[in-house]
Every structure is written in C-alpha cells, then in structure tokens.
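quick one, 304 residues, struct below
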Amino acid sequence: MSSSQRWAGVSAWQQWRERTVLRALFFCALISVLTTLGIIYILVNESVHFFAEVPVLDFVFGTEWAPLFEPRHFGVLPLVCGTLLISLGALVFALPIGLGIAVYTAEYAQGWWQKVLKPILEILAGIPSVVYGYFAITKITPFLQTLYPETEVFNAASASLVIAIMVLPTIASICDDSIRAIPKTLRDGAYALGARKSEVIFQIVLPSALSGILASFILAFSRAIGETMAVTLAAGATPQITANPFVGVQAMTSYIAQVSMGDVAHGTIEYQSIFAVGLMLFLMTLAMNLLSQFIVKRFARKYE
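---
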C-alpha cells in the first residue's frame, strides 16, 4: 500500500497525529537501542584499559581474587563460583515451587481465588531487594543456624533462599501464561480417551508448554545472576571457590557494588576491574537470554 493510499480519506489533523505518534514510538525505541549501545561501549572501553595490564587468560581462569590488597590477584573464578552457587541454589528451590504454583493457578484454582492468587504472588516482585537482604540476615540465617550450627553469618544458602523467593513471580507468571496458552481441545481429547486430570497435566499440557516453561527457568536464572543488594547483604564479601553453601562467598554483583562505593580512585586498575567483571556478567546474561530465545523457537508449538 502506497503512502497516498494509506492516508486517503484521512483528515490533515489525523495524519499529523498519526505521524507524531509514529515518530514518538520510533524515538522511544531509538533511546533503548542507544542506551544499550552506550552501556556496551562503556564496559568495553574501560575493560580494554584493564586487560592492557591484566592478561585475559589470567582474569578468566585465575583462582584468586584480591584486587584491593597487595599482592593483587585478578582471577575472576571465585566471583563466578559464588554467583553460580547462589543462582543455582536459588533455582533448586524456585523451579519446582514456581512450576507447581503455575499448574495450580492455571488448572486447579477456581473462581475468585484464581483471580486473586496470581496478583498476590506478583506483589513479591515489588518488594525492594534490600528488604529481602535484611530478611535473609535476620530470619533465614538464624533459621539455618538452628539446623546447621556451623552456618556462617554471611552464607550462600541464605542468599539462595531469598533469591528463590524473588524469582518465584517470574517463573510462576511465565509458566502460567504458557500453560493457559495450550488449547482446550487438547485437554478435551485426552479426557475423551479416559485420561485423568493429573495425566492430562503431566503428559499433555506440560510437554506442550515446554518452550515457555524452559524459557521461564532461564530468565529466572538470568534474574538471579544479576541480583545485587540481597546477595551483597546475605552472602558477604569473601571471594572463594567452594561448593559449601553455608559459608560466605562473594558474587560478581556484590564486588561491583563494593568497589562502586567510592573506596578506590577513579582510573586505577582496581576501579577498572569492576567494568571487566561487569562485562563478564553482561556476556553471561546475554548468553542466557539468547539461549532462552533459541529454546522458545526450538520447542515452540503452534496451534490453530
């Protein structure tokens, strides 16, 4: 359709309004693109100065992280280990609970309870992360210490539990939408063959909604990796490579927050290290998002 055909029979005022809205929407999209490019430029530019002094292999594969003390060490593996320990621990708790909530809200909840439960769950996403951090220190850690007295005040398990609570709305909401998107005809066909409700859910509905469910898991993992304040308060600032969730660790976001407080001079190697860590964190979350998109396209099913 040509431009003249598009605006045929449309008044000058309507044409001006439509063009203004179109330009405004384009400007909003352009701002998001430029902001992303600006962030990438800053991360890469500062990281180049950092890697001019620290070899990339030493940074990626080094096992000791001590950039603020002499002798300095810039091996990022302890930070990566702490980040993955907290994030994977959070998913262990959040994935089954979030999927169970989604199955209940989409398949079992009835009436007003069905309409109220999901909004109540999404309120969790509106609570500030610093509140979650203090909740982890004052409630979760003392509870863990009663179960395992050797639990340190700052520990990865406490951070994992509070992060699991924070990502529950993401998992439950996306899984709920994916389950509701499955056509009713599939359920009716299974019931017609004599299947029970549990069989319909676990053998028909969930496999059909697999792409959305897997995508919610990966997005929740990205959310857990990028969390800052709750992890900083709950997990501590002890960079170490360990699989013990009851000791203190330091995540990548925690280190960035620590150095960004202004304790180091601008332009120093210590200051530039936060951009190198931020670049690695950016690449990790980018990989998770690309994997999520691939899974959605790979396992997506179209229904008519």
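The CA atoms of residues 32 and 74 lie 33 Å apart.
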